Structure formats: C-alpha cells, structure tokens
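Side project, low priority. Logging it here so it doesn't get lost.
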Amino acid sequence: MNSNTDIDWNKKYSGKEYLFGTAPNNFLASQVGLLQKGQRCLDVGGGDGRNSVWLAEQGLEVLSIDQSDVALDKATALAEARRVSITTQAVDLFKWNWLQAAYDVVVSMHVHFESAQREIINRLMLDALVPGGLLIFEAFHPDQIANNTGGPSDVDYLVDAAILKNAFPSCSFLHLSEDTVHLPTRPHKPEGPAVVTRAVIRKP
C-alpha cells in the first residue's frame, strides 16, 4: 500500500482473490517470539487482512486500520473463516484520532508514504506505542526501483536503513536489515526478487 490518492484502493481490493495472499508477511511471522497473548496491536494499512488475522491467531487484540473499506470487509471475512476476531476501521490515517500509549505492538508492512508524510506517520506510530512497545516494520528499499515486482515507482516513497535510524533516534533497534527476498506471483505482478528494509524498533 502507499498513500497515493490517485490509486483507487477499493477497486484494487475488489476482486475475489486476496491481493497479497492470506499467509502473513514472512518477516512479521519470524518475529512471533516477541509477541504475547493479550497484547494490543495496531496494524497500520492492514489491507485485506493477512497480517491482522495471523496476529489474532497468536492471541493478540488487533485493530486493523486502512483507507479501503472493501479491503477491511475481506479482512473480517478471513478472520471469520479462521475463527478469530479482529476489529477494523476504515480511516484517513492523517485525520484519524490516533490514541497515545495505547498499543503494545504496531505493525507497518509495506505502507509507503512520500517523505514528508512518512515523517508524520512515523511520529504517530511511535506515540501510539506504550513505553517499551514494538514497531515491526517492512517496506521496499530504494534499490527496488530496478525491479518489476512491486512497490512505488517514486524513490521518495522508499526506505533504507539510514532513513529508519534517523526517523527513530531515541529508540533501540532489535533488528535492522536491508534484504533481498523472493516475491511470489500476485495479481498483476510477476514473481521475482525484491529489496526490502526490515526493522523491529523498541520505544524507550
């Protein structure tokens, strides 16, 4: 997902298939050891639910927010099929009433913003965490521009490790890496390599 208002996200999510599949993001799933049952989790740009539902399956209390109500309806259907419960809200991330110190975990998986907007969202996500809370993050790296496997075509929307370090100077990084991964075939995108930046960030 990115914040480009020219994209009709309801239209993109309108098909029967799940846009990015129903399995969780691999990096998110690899952090399962950091998660605890009963934790409050905010999934930012949760889309059609693959990560939100997996988080609920781990016993977390999940609120998924996204600008597409069509995507969130599919997320709710996926949760019902998996016999777990999630809460969803269709919101404008820049107008939503973000709660402060309300979540143990905030998840941001491939939610891309231009740099000025990203600075705002980063602050809002950090403020939403309780002290000691975790932000689990993955986004496309600037080197992804050379691939045809997904992500924004404007480098200003892309994130490297240095950008993240500068964005969260008061935080500790439990994980920070720039990795090449293999993406499967998805609607309108071929399979192939992708370059991503990954982090687990702990709020002081």
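Brief comment: The first helix runs from residue 9 to 12.
Revisit when time allows.
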